[in-house]
Amino acid sequence: MSTAGPLLGVLGGMGPLAAADFLKKLAEETPAQRDQEHIPYVAWGVPQIPDRPPAITGNGESPLPAMLEGVRALRRAGATAIAIACNTAHYWHAELERDGGLPVLHIADAACTELEARGIRDGRIGLIATEGTLQAGFFQKRFAARGLECLISNREDRDALVLPAIAAVKANRLQAAHELAVAAVTRLRQAGARSIVLACTETPVAIDHAPHPVAAHCIDATRALARACVAWHRQAGLEKTGHPG
Q1: pLDDT band of 1, cuts 50, 70, 90
Q2: Rounded mean pLDDT of 41-61?
Q3: Which of 59, 117, 121, 214 sits most deeply, having the most CB atoms within 10 A of its CB?
Q4: How far apart are the first and last CA of the chain?
């Protein structure tokens, strides 16, 4: 496959609806007037990749070999950079870059860029994520480096609200997911969070299922990654041709 400029590779399948949501937001965030001005991409969507959180918490098969298979397939297809439509998968970011041979845009960096764009440079930031992402700590480290305090849901709320919301999206029960995710965000706001980063790709799908005021306080990490991809494509196009990509 060849294109006139840089080609984005999208590693999806984790889960399928989350990858579709990312691609929709990639199109929405691209400042295009016609089809030909959108970002060219190739996608690898294989849902049989082992679950990420159990591998991080110590009782599951590593998804890294399957993810590397996807990255290498995208590279063979001509991709010049990778976006991963899964927050928890970024636990293996360094290995995917090293062994996959392509730069991987980091979703946590993209979320932090969005916080800065909103003028949020101090205070408490809520984080809604899988147990694997929380244990991996890459969001917390990036928040701390920017002087932000991270506030996560307590154990009870994670078990009763966050994890069931994620499971409901995967089962395509979006109304139930919406109600659970809204409750989780509301609890973090009540605990003092200025903003809440939705750091599991299923959670923006849940929040966006129906209008609700809590959405105004949320940072959608998926949309932030889409915006980062748009910025990458423009910069890569400038570097390649001397003109915007």
Answers
A1: very low
A2: 93
A3: 214
A4: 18
Instruction: Indicate if 108-222 has the same CATH topology as 8-106+223-241.
Output: yes
Mean pLDDT for all residues in the chain? 94
Give the whole-angstrom CA distance, residue 147 versus residue 40: 36
The pLDDT assigned to 243 comes to 52
Bridge partners of residue 84, in order along the sequence: 11
* Dist. CA 5–CA 35, nearest whole Å: 15
* Amino acid present at 196: I
Phi, psi angle pair for 87, to nearest 5°: -70, -50
Residue 40 backbone dihedrals phi, psi, to 5 degrees: -75, 140
Domain topology for 108-222:
Rossmann fold (3.40.50)
Query: What tokens does 227 get?
Result: 């915006």
**Starting from the edge strand earliest in sequence, which strands make up the sheet with 81-84, in order?**
41-45, 8-12, 81-84
Domains of the chain, by residue range, sit at 8-106+223-241, 108-222
Write the class of the CATH domain 8-106+223-241: alpha beta
The Cα 1–Cα 76 span in angstroms is 9
Residues 6 or more apart in contact with residue 148 via CB below 8 angstroms: 115, 120, 121, 122, 123, 124, 125
pLDDT at 37: 92
Which helix or strand (DSSP H or E) is residue 12 part of? strand 8-12
pTM (two decimals)? 0.92
What is the rounded CA–CA span in Å between residue 49 and residue 34?
A: 35
